[in-house]
Amino acid sequence: MATVKLNVKWGKESFSDIEVDLSQSPLVFKAQLFALTGVPVDRQKVLLKGTQLKDDDWGKAAPKDGMTVMLMGSAEAVPVDAPKNAPKFVEDLPEQEQEHLDTKRFGAGLENLGNTCYMNSTLQCMFAVQPLREALYKRGAAAGSDPTGKLVTATAELFRDLEGGGAPFPPYGFLMALRAKFPQFAQQGRDGEYAQQDAEECWTNVMFALKEKVKDTDGTPAVDKLFGIRTHLALKSEESPGEEFTEDGLAFTLKVNIEDKTAHVNEGVAVGLREERERTSTALGRTALFKGATVLTALPPYLTLQMMRFFFRRDNQQKAKILKKIPFSLEFDAYEFCSDALKKQLEGPRQAYKEAQDAAVEAKKLAKKGPGPQAEAPAAEAAAASGADVDMKDAVAGAGASTSAPATTKAMTGKYELVGVVTHKGRTADSGHYVAWVKQPSDGTWVCFDDEKLTVRSEEEVLQLSGGGDWHMAYLLLYRAIYADVPVAAEEPAAAAAGKEGAAAMEAEAPASAGAGGVVGP
């Protein structure tokens, strides 16, 4: 057998033109890798064409000249104490790290491992949910060694790597855990390459794995608290008016159905919430058509909308795509889809939110007129209403006779701000390309995560992802709840208490915007 030259990718390091004698056992090659990286042979996982290399036989994984091999494993500790606080200079950093200094604060890119853009874009949007990361770090270590537990642990490890920022890296550990838990993501085509998959299916399956393993001390899954939408379905039959069917449920995604007349996301949600079912009528003694709709009875801190753009075509046995333009907004209002009881609970916080917004606008107008006694009090009140820091003299000027402000708590308004988008470019779900667009909580900057490439984008560019052509168009929309400060009540309704808990989970995130203060069931 001939000698070939291979390239080795190990984390963020690369080694080129390594001569390998294929007449020798793979163990000899692993010894070469140990000499290069310091990773002991027993810790090495060498991946060729997606297959793990054995010690004694090349098998079908015999590499070809110029092929890139992936090495996983940690090196032995070097018995030399390096300076703990040694200064680092940009010119001394590797070229790859210098290249990503400008985007390091946004995280890191994920290398495409062969049609894995669906996975990369999904993970980047999930990573944007900071309370989910915190729950993973606290509970992920005890997830267990079964396939679900390994996937949860791999997710936590990947998120920690993304927090480090810098150069892109291959998410091999997560990919292997995902395919072990959900074999459908290991589907291969006739040529042996891994097939493209649906980003929404990846999102849903990972969420269900986290739901099973990541739970709070009271046993409630973190996914339920962060993404769970409480729903109530009511159906009636026109043939039997006195007969009604009801059903309560928990969903994690709102469907945005796309019809010929659908002109906006809100219209698509309304269509998705309507439902028709054929059921046995007790009164009629036969099957009858029941019609009705689902209403939302409790809202989550994070709301996910799925554009129903794909449908199955029988003629070519593919998931075709609806290219129709469906505009969406940077702010989504769920109020019209809520039950009457939930609407009543939202009225107070919505009024408080409106007053805070009006006060902020008035403060800006007064600020343009210049400082003065008449401008200081309203400005202080507006700052206090929006949760901003207030200078002591301003607080005194706005306080009047009162010596202390009333106690307040965070309450849901039913309004949400857009913080993440997964887009798809292409004509079918089984092909094309997925990309993530994420709003940074620190300064409100929008960043496009196109596998390993990070690019800063504007809000205008994000709003252009509404469809209507072959450009990237929104497939999943991730919204974060907007809260308002309301007076503390003696007794809080259950839904209000849930909103307060969700606000507490999101306190670590600092939204940059001024307002930041159909159902898919489980």
From TrEMBL:
Keyword presence, Hydrolase: yes
USP domain mapped to chain residues: 108-482
Positions of the UniProt region annotated as Disordered: 364-383
Catalytic reaction equation(s): Thiol-dependent hydrolysis of ester, thioester, amide, peptide and isopeptide bonds formed by the C-terminal Gly of ubiquitin (a 76-residue protein attached to proteins as an intracellular targeting signal)
PROSITE patterns membership: UBIQUITIN_1, UBIQUITIN_2, USP_1, USP_2, USP_3
E.C. numbers: 3.4.19.12
Pfam family, any one: UCH
Biased composition (Low complexity): 369-383
GO MF term set: cysteine-type deubiquitinase activity; proteasome binding
Keyword Transmembrane helix carried by entry: no
An example Gene Ontology biological process: regulation of proteasomal protein catabolic process
Sequence similarity: Belongs to the peptidase C19 family.
Role according to the record: Recognizes and hydrolyzes the peptide bond at the C-terminal Gly of ubiquitin. Involved in the processing of poly-ubiquitin precursors as well as that of ubiquitinated proteins.
The protein's name in its UniProt record: Ubiquitin carboxyl-terminal hydrolase
Upper lineage: Eukaryota, Viridiplantae, Chlorophyta, core chlorophytes, Chlorophyceae
